[in-house]
Write a structure and sequence with these properties.
Distance between the termini: 92 Å
Order of helices and strands: HHHHHHH
Radius of gyration: 33 Å
Structural class: mainly alpha
Number of strands: 0
Largest sheet: none
Shape: rod-shaped
């Protein structure tokens, strides 16, 4: 034991022999369902002085990197012409699958998955707000066109009644009448 009853510091993954580390990295990056706990036990890392927390963090990082490389490879090999909505749906589906796999393998904590799902829902809400804003803008443009058409018809009616010149007050009165729906 070290001073004052503390345990000695463990070794890092980088301190393992090259052969053990290579085998460990292959096992971690494989698409198998082996959990981080079982890898820790299978490679007898506790006896080698590796701490569980640092190993769990290492496994999580390695698997995230491996998933990223696999997704990049799929995207690079997939040169079809899909719409943006189809690509977003595919990414969302893959994210759910990867999150579930990480959760089942013990590589992710539940709060991480909940946080990810929360971000997905925030993205969905943002998309809905953008769509609502676009619909509101379209509705406003249609309303403006109706108002302009109404003002033009009112002006035409007034000009046909032998009143060729309009004062500013006449135009404002017509606009007020149209705006009030009179």
């Amino acid at each position: 034991m070290a001073k004052r009853g503390r345990k000695p510091k463990g070794i890092s993954i980088g301190d393992l022999s090259d052969e053990v580390r290579r085998d460990l990295d292959l096992a971690i990056e494989s698409e198998g369902d082996e959990s981080a706990r079982s890898l820790f036990a299978r490679f007898t890392l506790a006896q080698r002085g590796v701490g569980w927390a640092s190993f769990a963090k290492y496994v999580s990082q390695k698997r995230r990197e491996a998933r990223g490389r696999r997704i990049e490879a799929r995207i690079a090999s997939n040169d079809d012409t899909r719409t943006e909505a189809e690509l977003i749906a595919e990414l969302r589906r893959r994210a759910y699958i990867e999150a579930l796999a990480a959760l089942q393998a013990g590589d992710a904590k539940l709060y991480e998955i909940v946080s990810t799902l929360s971000r997905v829902h925030d993205f969905d809400r943002l998309q809905m707000e953008r769509a609502a804003e676009a619909r509101a803008a379209d509705k406003h443009e249609a309303w403006k066109k109706e108002v302009e058409k109404s003002i033009r018809s009112t002006l035409d009616d007034e000009s046909n009644a032998d009143k060729k010149s309009f004062t500013r007050e006449d135009v404002y009165d017509m606009i007020d009448q149209v705006m009030r729906g009179a």
